[in-house]
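Weekly puzzle thread! Below is a chain. First person to post its structure in token form gets bragging rights.
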Amino acid sequence: MSSEVREDLAGLQEALLNSGSVEQFLQQLALLATRTVSDGMSCGMALRPRGRAPRTVAACSDPLAAEADRVQDQTGEGPAAHVLRHGCRVRIEDTATYGRWPRFCRQAASLGIRSCYAVPLVTEGEPAGVLMLYARAPGAFGSGESSRAERFAASASGALTLSLRMASCQDTNEQLRSSIVSRAVIDQALGVIMATEHCPQDKAFAMLRSVSQNTNVKLRDLAATIVTRASGEPPGSTAPFEDG
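Winning reply:
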């Protein structure tokens, strides 16, 4: 393993350990990419929406990259959008003379961006995002810069896969915790109904569900109201086993 690869992996490990979310990790990756590929470059990172995610998750190393990414979002064209759709590398030697994506190239050149290089990020064997590099000089992405960008993207893809899996596990844990809290509140409400109506649990639940449907109020919210009225305090927001 070369010293460059070891440095990449060490930087990625530190970024992963110091990030509390996928968005924060992308921000760290963008900053790390600019130091790894070449000094003076700007970097944008983006993940295509996955699952229930409503939007593309993005991060930038600096305001120039943020503005270049905004241009692509507004025009609906450019190398980043192409990579997100097709999963292939894109190199622009000079935005002042490049014939494709004229609206993006014209605005990028006005920002002082003269060359770009976009590399796909692959997770679970499929293109999931893009590493977008911007330079103020034309022809800034020679063989050395391109090789470093591709090597970094490959290493970052592995770390990104781990970050996404960790985020998925965290989401699952949050959903489970919320479900347990809801179940506990509903059980408390059933106890109140059973005591006041002198009925068994199944009848108490039928009554609770009927009121929920007739009033168009969620079962948990209705249960919370019952518990609050009976105890004088709203139910706790933590699962029962978290208190100890």
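Puzzle host: Confirmed. Bonus trivia for everyone else. Helices lie at 3-17, 22-37, 63-75, 79-86, 102-111, 143-197, 201-215, 219-231.
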